Structures are given as C-alpha cells and as structure tokens.
Amino acid sequence: MSMENMSGGTMAESRSEQSQGHISRSAGSPPPPEADETIIGLEVHCQLDTVTKLFCACSTDYRSDGPNTHTCPVCLGLPGALPAINKKAVEFALRVAKALNCEVLFESVFSRKNYFYPDLDKAFQISQYDKPLAVGGYLVIEGEEGEKRVRITRVHMEEDPGRLVHKGGADRARYSLVDYNRAGIPLIEIVTEPDMRSPKEARRFLNKLRATLEYLSVFDSEKEGSLRVDANISLQPEGWFDREKKSYKGRNRVEVKNISSYKGVEKALTFEITRQRNVIRKGQPIEQATRHFVETQGITTASRSKEEEQDYRYFPEPDLCPLRVSSWVERIDLPELPDARRARFIGQYGCSPNHARTLTGDLKLADFYEKVAAQADPVLSATWVADTLIGELNYRDMGIGSVTPSHMIELVTLVKSKVLTDRNAIEVLRTILDGILQKQPAGTPSQVVARLDLGATDSGIIPAAIADVIREQPQAVADYDSGKKEAFMFLIGQVMKKTKGKADPAELNTMLRKALDGRVQ
Ligand SMILES: [Zn+2]
Questions:
Q1: pLDDT at 380
Q2: Which of 193, 204, 214, 219 lies closest to 140, judged by CA?
C-alpha cells in the first residue's frame, strides 16, 4: 500500500546509496548517534464509516457477525462482477481532503494494485496510484517546539482486503482461515511528508488526525482495526536531511508496517530509534528494509524485503470511470474542527489553553464537557473533567462514554458550593467509577456523599478538633515551636483525620496556625 516512492522520486538515489554501504563524512569524526535528528513520516489507513462497502451494497457492520456473512460477488471478486462506486465514501474522502487543506485533483483514477495474498480474493486491490484524490495539504499539531504543520503528501481511496484468522495464534497457527467480511470496506490512505521529529510528535499527529476525522463524522476510532499505520523512520546527522527537497543524503530509512494502535506507533518508533542507534554506533549501515511491529513484545522484527512499486503492475481499473469531483468540494460544508473548537472553549468558557486542548482532542470528550459546562461552573468543570476525570478514567481503562454528564454537573456543583472538599470530591468520583466498573451503580454524587458521610460540616467542628490535636500531640507541637515545618504538616494531617477530610484545607491551615501561634506558652 506504500506510495511514498512515487512522489519524491528518491528511489534511485536511495538504492545507489545502499550499495555504497556506510556513508562517509567529508570532515571530522561522525557525531554520536544521540545527536542525530529523527525523521518520521506516516502512512495512515482509516476505514471510512459508511453504511455499505466501497464498490458493492454489502453492509460494513460486520464485526459482531460470523465470517463471510457480509459478502457478494463483487467483494468476493467473482468473475464478471462489476464494482460501482459508493458516493458516500467519495463524499467522506472529500471531507477529509478539505479538512486537511488538500487540493482535490480535477481527475482521480482508480488503479489495480496486483499482488497475491490469501486475504485478497481478486488478486488485486482497487486503489489509487498516479492520480490520487487529493494532494498537498497539512495538519497543524502541537510539536516539540510549539505548533507545527505536518505536510500531507496525498490522500487517496482504496478498498480494504479481507482478514486472515490464524488458528492457534500468529506464531504457532496450524492453519489459517479467511474472512472476506472486511474485503471492500472503504479506506482512505493519508500519506505525510517526513515532518515529524520524535515518536511523541508522531503520536500527536495521529491523535489530531483521529480527532479531525471524528469531528468530520467519517470515522469511528473505537471500531477494532479501523486505523492502521505504516511508519518510516531514519536517523540523520543534524542538517543532513533536506526538508524541502525530501532527499535522503544520509542513511537509509526503515519502514515499520501495519501498526494497529495509537500507543503502538510511539512504541514501535521508540524501539526503532534505539535499534538504529546501536547499528550506527557499531559503524554498520542501516539497510533499507521493511520491519514488523510485534505489539505484544514492543519490538520490531525484520520481514520479507519490500516489493518495489513496479512489482505491483499498477494499471487503471477498467471497470470504473475516472472520478471528477473537484467541483463538489466547494459544496461540502465542514463542521467546527478541533482547532476552532479549542479557540471557542477558551473564549466562551474561559478554559486554559491546556484544558481546551485536552477537552477538544476527542469529540466525545468535547461534547461531554460542553454538557457539563452548560450547567455548572465552566472553569471548575474544565479542571474536573480534563484533569481529574480523565485521570481516573484512564487509570481504570474506561472511556468517557461510561460516565453521564449529570453526575459530573452535580459533583462540580457540590465542590463549587463547598459542600465537598476537593479531596472528598475525588473520593465520591472514585466510588462512582468503581461502581460503574463493577456493575454495581453507586448512585448520584449526593447519594454517595450522604452514604459515606463526606459532606463538609460547618467550620464549627474545626476548633474542637484542633484543640484535641494540640493536646494529644505535645511532641509535634514542641517541634512546631522549634521551627520544624514538617511538624505543621503532620498536625494538619491529624486534624484532617479528625474531621474526616471534610474541612476546607485553606481554612484549616489558617485556623491551625492561629491556634498554635496564639497559645499562651
Ligand atoms: Zn459485497
């Protein structure tokens, strides 16, 4: 599915370099590999969330159904069956192209990419080759040094192949089965220029891309296998990589294929950097190669040598007309996208830039926050949703969909009105989330507060608690008198314990200090 060699015209160069082996430097000793620049480009395949497949009327909703139940002569590649393009898929792809600031070409052409593999029933994949749907866009991401544009080389449409099921696991399978339910699901491939400089930037690009596609309502990241990434990576001495001309004057690059999770991309690239550094340190050349990411072990392994583009014998698909859809683009209205929504969150709700970025980085999270902010203090809601809730959800491996906005509205309101201290509010939240996780609902925040007796009492009980603690802890009080700061924190802790965490920490702090300093000694 790789097309990167077409646009840059660098294949001949890199091949001749490979034959020369290690590149010699003109002067001085080579810098240590740690000083190298990491050069990363991505090819991202996303399933478009249409109702039917790209070239037939089979349903795309196959995940919970038995194998080979969503098939027909077209997606099974039977002789004589003719493909017909899904208009909705084209519209979805155009939305993506427009949101990624690409130029939609006047004419794009479907081509047959010929190769044999059991999951490819026709022995060719209908894809786009020399005339893709769109070219030359960009996506703005939060880079290591502030905002940066990652350039998009091309966006093209193609069909997904079927799926192999290895019985007994990929390593030890005694036989494999083929499921063609996935065959013909519409994909878009988004190819970037090698503009990312760290695994973290690659991950941020993917997160931003995912958010953008979800805002466009063309993609569902929660569907298993809906996103797959090929990443190419090389380490080049600083300044050797010519950004604009895209020529690899330095070392060869490695392509890591078929990474199927967002975290996996960062892991695979981090592993590759270490591996390539070790090879360079030994003075050996980096071979231009394709490697596979083994998700379970977090490593990449060598795989078959990569086919060259000419091996695929691309030719125009004779059963489909060229697409002329560039004029359609103007009529496509894009919804509010993540950057615009982030700016609005800052302006409308007074969110901090960081909170706004977190909250708008996921469509469902952004929708959730807006429901909470409509009925509770928006700034306090931003803190509680973006920091506390996300942290607690991640810890439990839960998604935002498992909580209802009404619970969060109530919780934030209880904090705002000082019925709950921050500490006890977290306790309430944890109780609710654990309840959801164990399928034993804990009730509303108010119910939890009442049941666990976590509501703040009036500050009347604090003086009594302070007096008790001062009487019970003469040693800590003496330490405080002699200027030991830890003693004060210890005493605060003791009073907290007596008030069951219901006292407002700031108020408690002031009152305890007053009580200690005001003692007649
Ligand atoms: Zn079909």
A1: 97
A2: 204
CA 46 to chain centre: 13
What average pLDDT does range 241-253 have in this prediction? 65
pLDDT confidence of residue 6: 38
pLDDT tens, position by position, 330-380? 999 999 999 999 999 999 999 999 999 999 999 999 999 999 999 999 999
Residue with tokens 């705002």: 416
The Å distance, Cα 323 to ligand 1 centre, comes to 21
Residue with tokens 């919970």, as numbered in its chain: 64
Give distance in angstroms: CA of 66 to centre of ligand 1.
Answer: 15
Helix, strand, coil share (%) of the chain residues, nearest 5: 40, 20, 40
Give residue 161 CA to ligand 1 midpoint distance, Å.
Answer: 12
pLDDT at 306: 58
Q: How far is the CA of 75 from the centre of ligand 1 (A)?
A: 4
Residue with structure tokens 């090698």? 194
Structure tokens at 94: 């155009």
**118 alpha carbon to ligand 1 midpoint, in Å?**
17
Distance CA 281, CA 22 (A): 12
C-alpha–C-alpha distance, residues 280 and 278, integer Å: 5
Amino acid identity of 406?
A: S
Q: Is 115 helix (H, G, I), strand (E, B) or coil?
A: coil
Given a cut of 90, whether residue 5 has pLDDT beyond it is: no
